[in-house]
Amino acid sequence: MSKEIVKNFNLILKSFLSQITPLVGCFYIKKFDLITKFNSTLPIEKFLVHALPLRDKILNRDESYFADNCNHKDKVGDNDFIISEILRLQNIYLKLDQTSRSNLWDIFQAMLILGEDYVRLKVTKNM
Description:
Layout: H1 2-24, H2 27-38, H3 42-51, H4 55-59, H5 64-67, H6 78-88, H7 90-95, H8 98-126
């Protein structure tokens, strides 16, 4: 079941990265593909590091999630940096129209729900 959650999370994130390619180029999607080839759980785990402490902001669609630099902490290591940059999206968010912003919140909320399910399954499995 957790493999299915990771697979769905990665599909959503890859689809999102494909959609923003016109804004950011193909660098991030290429790095995402490379990372998931070797560690498919890294994107969901990194997302959770950033998203769980800000869960309420994501669920309430609080725009300060994208505007506040304090919301995100840079991590050491190339893969950590890349995933963090993908999920940061501060500059991209400002370029989006209202419909696209709403879609972005839908994507982040879906990834958050999948992430929470992933954590629940891991905790249950370890009991």
